Amino acid sequence: MKSSRSTEVASAEEQIYDRISELKAFDETKAGVKGLVDAGITKVPRIFFSPVDGFDKVSDPEKVEFCIPVIDLDGVEKDPVSRKNVKNKVRDASETWGFFQVINHGIPDSVLEEMLDGVRRFYELDTEVKKEWYTRDGSKTVVYNSNFDLYSAASANWRDTTYCNMAPNPPSSENLPKACRDILIEYSRQVRNLGLILFELLSEALNLNPNHLYDMDCAEGLAILYHYYPACPEPELTLGASKHADYDFLTVLLQDHIGGLQVLYQNQWVDIPPVPGALVVNIGDLLQLISNDKFKSSQHRVLANKAGPRVSVASFFTTGLVPLSKIYGPIKELLSEDNPPKYKETTVRDYSLHYNAKGIGGASALLDFRL
Asked: Which residue ranges does the record assign to the Fe2OG dioxygenase domain (predicted)?
C-alpha cells in the first residue's frame, strides 16, 4: 500500500509528465499559438496558465508620475540646445524607468506601417508554408517558433515569434521570408541609423564621448524579433509575454495600436500606450552591466487580450550567439573608489546563452553576474 507521501510524489510526477507531453505535442504541430486559434480553440490550454507574479497592482494612468516619458528627437543632430535637452531627458528616463518613447525619430510612418503589415503577412501564411522556418536552433539566420524557452519556463506565453539576425553578418535576401523580406531589410537599415543616434545620446548621458558605446561595438549586432499575439479566448489566464528584462544593450520596439505592453515601475505595472508614429526604447541587461547600474534594464510584460491579433517588432542591438571574443564589463571611466565594479565581465554570447537557458518569467539573469 502506497503512503500518502509517495502518492503525492507520483501525482506530482504525473503532472510534470503531462506538462512535458503537452508541450511536445504543441511544439510538434509547428503551428504555434496561431494554430490553436485557427483551430477554433475556446479554452486556454494549461501549459499557458501564468503564475501570479506578485506585482498585480496596476498604476493609475491619470497620474502624471506614471506616464512613460515621450522624447522628441527633432533637431537633435543640428541644434546643440535641443541635443542637450534631449540628452538630459534620455539620462533621466534611462536611470529611472529604463524605458522611453521617441517621436520625430527619422523613420517614416510608411516604413513603420509596412513593417507591421509584413509581420501580419508572414503569420497569416498557410501553416505548411511557415513550417519551413520553424526551428529551435538559435544559431540559424531565421528562427520561427512559439516560446524560445518553451521547455524551461514556468508557463508558455500566448505569442509566436520570429528572430532574424540582420547584423553583423547580414543575410542574403533569399534567406529571409518572402512575405516580409524587402521591408525587413529596409526597416533594419533605418533602425540601425536610429540606434547610432540613441547610442550617441546614451554615451553623452553617461558623460562619455559621443562615440564611446559605438566604439565598444554595442551597435555591431542587430536582431529583429517580430511577434504575433493572437486574440486570446481567456486572457485573464495567461500572458502575451511573461515578466522579463531584455538581454541586449538596447531595444527599439515598434508596436501596433492594440496595446498591452507594461513596465514594472515602483512595484506597479504601468501601461506603455501606443503613440502613433512613436517607437519604444528600453535599456537592456548588457547596458545596465557596462553602465554599472547607472542605467536600468527594467522588467516588462505583455498582456494577452481578446482584441488581437497584436503585432510588434523588437530590434535588439546585440551580437547574440555570434562567437565573438570581446569582453564586456563595467566601463572603466564610470568607476571610482566610491563606485567599484558591480558585475563580472562576460562576452555577449555567454550572457545570451545564460539568459536563454534561464528563460523568462523568473528572476533577472543579470543578478547571476553581480559581484
From this structure: 220-320
The string of pLDDT tens digits covering residues 78-122 is 999 999 999 999 999 999 999 999 999 999 999 999 999 999 999
Rounded to an integer, the average pLDDT of 188-213 is: 98
Give Cβ neighbours of residue 64 (< 8 Å, ≥ 6 apart): none
Instruction: Identify whether the C-beta of residue 278 lies closer than 8 Å to the C-beta of residue 103.
Output: yes
What φ, ψ does residue 331 adopt, rounded to 5°?
A: -65, 125
Q: How many domains does the chain have?
A: 1
In a domain, 299, yes or no: yes
Tell me the C-alpha distance between 319 and 166, whole Å.
Answer: 10
Q: Residue 143 corresponds to which cell in the numbers above?
A: 528562427
Q: Is 138 left (phi over 0), alpha (psi -120 to 50) or beta?
A: alpha
Q: Helices 181-205 and 109-123 meet at what angle, rounded to 10?
A: 130
Grid coordinates representing 280 are 519604444
The pLDDT score that the predictor gives to residue 9 is: 44
Using CA atoms, how far apart are residues 197 and 186, in angstroms rounded to an integer? Answer: 18
The reply to whether 161 falls in a domain is yes
Residue 90 contacts residue 100 (beta carbons within 8 Å): yes
* Contacts of residue 219, Cβ cutoff 8 Å, sequence gap at least 6: 192, 195, 196, 199, 213, 249, 317
CA Rg, the chain, in Å? 21
3-state secondary structure of 310: strand
Give a yes or no: residue 2 inside a domain: no
Query: What is the pLDDT, as a whole number, of residue 66?
Result: 85
Residue-wise pLDDT tens digits, 135-191:
999 889 999 999 999 999 999 999 999 999 999 999 999 999 999 999 999 999 999
In a domain, 69, yes or no: yes
Please give the residue range of the domain that contains residue 247.
Answer: 20-369
Sheet holding 261-265, edge to edge: 239-244, 300-303, 261-265, 268-271
User: Which range has the worst mean pLDDT, 2-11, 67-76, 154-163, 180-189?
Assistant: 2-11
pTM, two decimal places: 0.93
Looking at the chain, list the stretches that DSSP marks H as alpha helix, in order from N- to C-terminal side: 4-29, 32-38, 80-96, 109-123, 127-130, 181-205, 212-215, 285-290, 348-358
Q: Is 228 within 8 Å of 123 (Cβ atoms)?
A: yes
Determine contact, residues 116/256, Cβ cutoff 8 Å: yes
Local structure of 284: helix, strand or coil: coil
